[in-house]
C-alpha cells in the first residue's frame, strides 16, 4: 500500500525546485506519522531473524548481556563446561566467568574464560571508555588460574579488566571475612570503577565498616587500575541486599536493592512488608544523601535500575504485594513483575504491575527503546491470562513486555522453547530490532533452531517488528544546483535497514548509504532520484521525477590585459578578483588595475548564483617596472612620518615648463594619496616635495610622478607610525 501511494504521488503530483522539495517532504512525513501510529499497537509483533546457541558439555548460564561499541553483542555468565562445544578453554575449578563475544549477526568472534581454583560467578559487565571491558562478580577462589590475589573470606568481589580483544590486563579482589557478593559495576567519570553488592562481613580485610544488621549494601570505589580508593556500607538492622546501581549527572549514584529492615542504621523509613525496594543516593565520595523505601505488604525484590529520558529512573523486579503501600495495582497471579518510575530525588512518579495467573520470577532487565518506551524481560510460568497473551511452549519461558513512555503495556511476547528456561535479557540494536539472550536447556523447537550442547547453554535470538514496514522518504539539502555542484541527501526513511539509491546523471550514480553525501551533477537538466528501502520483511520504493534541477551553463569567461588593467567579460551579476589565490578586498568590478606581477583570477556569478572562474597567470604590470627608479630619490626610506621626494630637473620631459604631479599607491594598486601638483623650478637642479605619510600603515608603497608625458616611479617603505 505504501509503495503504491509513493509511486502515485511521484507520478502525478509534479512540482519543481524548492516547492517540490517542501511538498514532497511534508507529504512523506505525513505518511510516516500515519503508518507509525497505526503500526505500533499490534499484539506480539516480533518475528525471529536468526538465533545461535553457545555452550559446552555442562552447565552454562547467562547473567549479563550488552551491546558493544562495534554493534556486536556480548553475553556473559557462568560455566562449568570443559573445552568442548563452543568453549575454547577448560574450567579452572567449579564455576568460572565465561564470556561470548559475537558480531552484529550473532556469529561468535571469541570466547573468554576467567576463574580460579574454586567457584567464580560473573554477575556484571560494562564496556569501558578505552574499548575494553570490566567483568565483575563474586569468587571463593584463592590465588590460582586467572586470580592473582588471595581470598579474604568465603566469597569476595572479583573484577577482571581486559582490552577490546579480551586479553586480561589486571584483576582485583575485595572482601571481608564472610560473604561479599557483587552484582553491579559502573565506570566512573574519572575512569575508575564503582563496585556494588552486599556483605555479611565485619570490619575486616578491605571492609572498613561494621555491619548494621545482617547483610548490608557494600560499595567499593577504585581508580582506573582497580586500586581501592574507599568503601562504604549502607543498611538497617535486618537484611539489605544491593542488586543495581545508576550514575547521576552530579557525579553521585543511586543504589537499589531489597531491604527487610525497619527504620534503623542508614534506613530512615519502616518496611512496608517483609521486603521492599530500597533506594539510596550517595555522592561521589560515598556520603549518603537520602534513602527511600518503596513497597507493599508482601515481598518486593528489585533486580536493577535503568536511567530513562528526562533524567529519571525506572526500578524493576518482582512483587507478590496486593494494592497497598506504594503499589497501586494488584497482582494477577502469585507473583508479578513490578516497575516503579522515580525522579532524581527518589520520589515515585508511577508504578506498573505485569503478570499472568501463575508465577513471574527471574526479572531480567529494563531497556529503554528508541521510541522512549520500555522493554521488560523476565521468566514466566503463566499461560494466557492477565497481561499474558500467549501460552508457554515449555515449562518456564522468557517473557517480553513492551510499554510506552508512561509504562502502559503496548504488547507482550513469549520466547518459545521446548525447555525450562531461566532469566532472559533484552537490548535494542541500532536497526530497531531486539536481541534477547536466554539460558536454556531446550533442544530444537519453538524459536530455537539449534540443539543443546549440554545441560544449559547461552542462547541469543534476534527479533524484528514485522508490523513496521519500511517507508521510503528523503529530502535533498539542495534540489536546484549549478553545473559541477554536489548535494547531500538526508534520509527520512522509517523502519528500514538497507538502502538502494539511484541518481541518473549524478556521480556516483548509485549508493547503498543511508544518507549519501556529495552526489555531483555536471550537465544542465532535470534528473530523477529513486530510493528503495527494505527491512527483514518487505521493501518500499520512492520515485521522484525531475527532483534535481541543474541550471544551464553560464557564458564562457576570460581575462584580457590592457596595460595595467585586467578585463573580464561583462554580463555577470557579481565579480570578485583574486591575486595568487587570495581575495582582493573591494575588487568587485568587471575590471581591475593590477599593481603586482603574479597570477590573477576573477570569480563571476550569474543570475542563478552559479559561479564561473577565469584565470590569467604570470601577469606583468608596469607599476613595478621601475625602469626610471634611479631618477627619483625618496628619503628617509624606510620612513615613519614624512618622506621627501627629489627629482633631477633634466630627467623631466617638460623641463619645468608645466607643473608635475605625484600620487602614492599601495601594492594592490589602490591609490592611497591622490594626485597633488608640484611646480618645477629652473633655478634649481632638482625638484623636491615633502609628503606627510603618518596616515599610511606599515608596508611597501610606490610613489608615481607624472610630468605630462612620462611616468617616474620609486618604492619606499613605511616601517612604523610613531607620532
Q: Features of this protein?
A:
723 residues, mainly beta, five-stranded mixed β-sheet, 53 strands
What's the number of helices? 2
Spatial gap, N to C terminus: 82 Å
- Overall pLDDT metric: 88
- Form type: elongated
Fraction of residues in β-strands: over 45%
Radius of gyration: 40 Å
Q: Tell me the helix content.
A: under 10%
Number of strands: 53
Structure class: mainly beta
Uncertain ranges:
1-42, 624-628
Q: Sheet bearing the most strands, described?
A: 5 strands, antiparallel
Could you explain the architecture of this structure?
Helix content is 5%, strand content 46%. It is mostly beta strands. Strands 22, 23, 24, 25 and 26 form a five-stranded antiparallel β-sheet that branches. Strand 40 (559-562) and strand 41 (565-568) form a beta hairpin. The relative contact order is 0.08.
In short:
The chain is mainly beta and 723 residues long.
Helices and strands in order:
Blueprint: H1 2-12, H2 17-39, E1 46-54, E2 60-67, E3 73-79, E4 96-102, E5 108-114, E6 120-127, E7 133-139, E8 156-162, E9 168-174, E10 180-187, E11 193-199, E12 216-222, E13 228-234, E14 240-247, E15 253-259, E16 276-282, E17 288-294, E18 300-308, E19 312-319, E20 336-342, E21 348-354, E22 360-361, E23 366-368, E24 374-380, E25 397-403, E26 409-415, E27 425-428, E28 434-440, E29 457-465, E30 474-476, E31 480-481, E32 485-487, E33 489-491, E34 498-502, E35 506-507, E36 510-511, E37 519-521, E38 525-534, E39 539-550, E40 559-562, E41 565-568, E42 574-579, E43 582-583, E44 591-593, E45 598-605, E46 611-619, E47 632-635, E48 642-648, E49 660-666, E50 671-678, E51 686-692, E52 699-706, E53 711-718
Parallel strand pairs: 31-39
Antiparallel strand pairs: 1-29, 2-3, 3-4, 4-5, 6-7, 7-8, 8-9, 10-11, 11-12, 12-13, 14-15, 15-16, 16-17, 18-19, 19-20, 20-21, 22-24, 23-24, 24-25, 25-26, 27-28, 28-29, 30-33, 32-37, 34-36, 34-38, 35-37, 38-39, 40-41, 41-44, 42-43, 42-45, 45-46, 47-48, 48-51, 49-50, 49-52, 52-53
Amino acid at each position: 500500500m505504501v509503495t503504491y501511494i509513493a509511486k502515485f504521488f511521484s507520478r502525478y503530483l509534479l512540482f519543481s525546485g524548492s516547492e517540490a522539495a517542501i511538498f514532497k517532504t511534508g507529504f512523506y512525513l505525513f505518511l510516516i506519522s500515519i503508518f507509525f501510529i497505526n503500526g505500533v499497537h499490534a499484539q506480539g509483533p516480533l518475528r525471529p531473524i536468526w538465533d545461535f546457541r553457545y555452550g559446552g558439555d555442562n552447565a552454562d548460564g547467562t547473567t549479563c548481556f550488552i551491546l558493544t561499541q562495534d554493534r556486536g553483542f556480548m553475553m556473559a555468565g557462568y560455566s562449568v563446561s570443559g573445552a568442548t562445544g563452543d568453549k575454547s578453554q577448560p574450567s579452572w575449578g567449579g564455576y568460572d566467568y565465561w564470556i561470548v563475544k559475537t558480531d552484529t549477526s550473532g556469529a561468535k568472534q571469541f570466547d573468554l574464560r576467567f576463574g580460579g581454583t574454586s567457584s567464580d560467578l560473573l554477575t556484571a559487565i560494562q564496556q569501558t571508555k578505552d574499548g575494553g571491558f570490566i567483568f565483575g562478580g563474586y569468587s571463593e577462589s584463592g590465588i590460582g588460574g586467572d586470580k592473582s590475589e588471595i581470598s579474604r573470606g568465603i566469597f569476595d568481589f572479583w573484577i577482571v579488566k581486559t582490552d577490546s580483544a579480551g586479553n586480561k590486563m589486571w584483576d582485583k579482589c575485595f572482601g571481608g571475612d564472610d560473604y561479599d557478593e557483587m552484582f553491579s559495576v559502573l565506570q566512573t567519570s574519572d575512569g575508575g570503577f564503582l563496585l556494588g553488592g552486599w556483605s555479611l562481613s565485619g570490619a575486616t580485610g578491605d571492609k572498613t565498616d561494621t555491619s548494621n544488621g545482617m547483610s548490608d549494601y557494600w560499595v567499593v570505589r577504585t581508580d582506573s587500575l582497580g586500586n581501592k580508593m574507599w568503601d562504604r556500607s549502607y543498611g538497617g538492622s535486618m537484611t539489605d541486599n544491593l542488586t543495581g546501581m545508576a550514575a547521576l549527572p552530579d557525579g553521585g549514584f543511586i543504589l537499589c536493592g531489597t531491604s527487610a529492615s525497619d527504620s534503623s542504621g542508614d534506613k530512615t523509613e519502616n518496611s512496608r512488608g517483609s521486603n521492599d525496594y530500597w533506594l539510596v543516593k550517595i555522592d561521589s565520595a560515598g556520603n549518603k544523601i537520602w534513602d527511600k523505601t518503596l513497597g507493599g505488604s508482601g515481598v518486593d525484590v528489585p533486580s536493577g535500575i535503568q536511567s530513562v529520558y528526562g533524567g529519571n529512573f525506572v526500578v524493576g523486579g518482582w512483587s507478590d504485594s496486593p494494592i497497598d503501600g506504594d503499589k497501586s495495582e494488584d497482582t494477577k497471579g502469585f507473583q508479578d513483575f513490578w516497575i516503579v518510575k522515580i525522579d532524581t530525588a527518589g520520589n515515585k512518579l508511577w508504578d506498573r504491575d505485569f503478570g499472568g495467573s501463575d508465577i513471574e520470577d527471574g526479572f531480567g532487565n529494563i531497556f529503554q527503546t528508541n521510541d522512549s518506551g520500555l522493554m521488560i524481560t523476565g521468566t514466566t510460568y503463566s499461560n494466557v491470562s492477565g497481561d499474558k497473551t500467549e501460552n508457554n511452549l515449555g515449562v518456564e519461558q522468557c517473557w517480553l513486555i513492551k510499554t510506552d513512555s508512561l509504562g502502559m503495556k503496548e504488547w507482550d511476547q513469549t520466547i518459545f522453547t521446548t525447555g525450562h528456561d531461566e532469566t532472559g535479557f533484552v537490548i535494542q540494536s541500532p536497526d530497531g530490532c531486539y536481541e534477547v539472550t536466554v539460558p536454556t536447556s531446550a533442544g530444537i523447537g519453538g524459536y530455537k533452531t539449534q540443539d543443546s550442547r549440554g545441560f544449559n547453554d547461552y542462547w541469543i535470538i534476534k527479533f524484528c517488528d514485522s508490523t513496521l514496514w519500511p517507508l521510503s522518504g528523503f529530502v535533498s539539502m539542495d534540489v536546484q544546483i549549478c553545473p559541477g555542484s554536489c548535494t547531500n541527501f538526508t534520509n527520512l526513511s522509517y523502519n528500514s535497514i538497507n538502502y538502494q539509491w539511484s541518481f541518473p546523471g549524478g556521480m556516483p550514480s548509485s549508493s547503498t548509504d543511508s544518507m549519501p553525501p556529495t552526489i555531483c551533477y555536471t550537465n544542465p537538466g532535470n534528473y530523477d532520484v529513486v530510493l528503495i528501502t527494505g527491512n527483514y520483511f518487505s521493501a518500499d520504493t520512492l520515485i521522484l521525477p525531475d527532483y534535481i534541477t541543474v541550471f544551464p551553463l553560464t557564458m564562457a569567461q576570460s581575462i584580457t590585459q590592457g596595460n595595467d588593467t585586467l578585463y573580464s567579460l561583462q554580463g555577470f551579476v557579481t565579480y570578485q578578483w583574486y591575486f595568487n589565490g587570495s581575495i582582493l578586498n573591494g575588487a568587485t568590478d568587471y575590471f581591475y588595475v593590477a599593481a603586482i606581477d603574479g597570477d590573477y583570477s576573477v570569480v563571476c556569478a550569474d543570475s542563478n548564483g552559479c559561479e564561473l572562474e577565469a584565470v590569467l597567470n604570470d601577469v606583468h604590470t608596469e607599476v613595478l617596472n621601475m625602469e626610471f627608479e634611479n631618477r627619483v630619490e625618496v628619503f628617509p626610506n624606510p620612513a615613519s612620518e614624512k618622506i621627501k621626494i627629489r627629482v633631477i630637473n633634466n630627467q623631466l620631459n617638460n623641463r619645468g615648463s608645466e607643473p608635475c604631479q605625484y600620487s602614492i599607491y599601495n601594492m594592490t594598486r589602490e591609490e592611497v594619496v591622490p594626485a597633488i601638483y608640484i611646480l618645477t623650478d629652473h633655478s634649481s637642479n632638482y625638484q623636491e616635495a615633502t609628503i606627510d605619510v603618518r596616515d599610511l600603515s606599515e608596508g611597501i608603497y610606490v610613489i608615481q610622478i607624472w610630468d605630462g608625458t612620462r611616468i617616474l616611479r620609486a618604492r619606499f617603505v613605511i616601517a612604523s607610525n610613531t607620532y
